From TrEMBL:
It holds the Pfam family LMWPc. It comes from Nitrospira moscoviensis. CDD domains: LMWP_ArsC (cd16345). Gene3D superfamilies: 3.40.50.2300. InterPro entries: Ptyr_pPase, Ptyr_pPase_sf. GO terms for molecular function: oxidoreductase activity; protein tyrosine phosphatase activity. One of its GO terms (biological process) is response to arsenic-containing substance. The keyword Hydrolase applies. This is Arsenate reductase. SMART domains: LMWPc. Its EC number is 1.20.4.-, 3.1.3.48.
């Protein structure tokens, strides 16, 4: 039986969406993967583009509120931003709570290339953390 993982972020627009797509791509045979936000704002096109760059399509994802999942059991609930961690320090029905802190690429201002670079950098950081997560389990 697959273990259930929920990635939480504030807007469920970039970091948690990329984490969901990456874990599903790298180990979807072992995990049922979901993502949600404390204040969902819609899927960020920069996240979609950064994931497409490595051959993962998250364009059909949608932002979801964490309340959609509060009655579900998860082996792992992983917050990927500090604000989400502060908003939900405890999660009902979670066996293990984990916190990974990543900068918000959606908050980066500047040129299109600078914004693209921010999304790619955070994507790669999340990928590295997920690879460690998979290896440790």
């Amino acid at each position: 039986m697959k273990q259930r993982v929920l990635f939480l972020c504030t807007g469920n627009s970039a970091r948690s969406q990329m984490a969901e797509g990456l874990l599903r791509h790298l180990a979807g045979d072992r995990y049922d993967v979901f993502s949600a936000g404390t204040h969902p704002v819609g899927l960020n096109p920069g996240a979609v583009e950064a994931m497409q760059d490595i051959g993962i399509d998250i364009s059909k994802h949608r932002s979801k509120h964490m309340n959609e999942f509060t009655d579900r059991a998860f082996e792992y609930v992983i917050t990927v931003c500090d604000r989400a961690k502060d908003s939900c320090p405890r999660w009902p029905h979670a066996a293990t709570l984990i916190h990974w802190s990543f900068e918000d690429p959606a908050a980066v201002t500047g040129t299109a290339d600078e914004r693209r670079h921010a999304f790619r950098t955070v994507r790669d950081q999340i990928k590295q953390q997920i690879e460690l997560f998979i290896t440790a389990r």
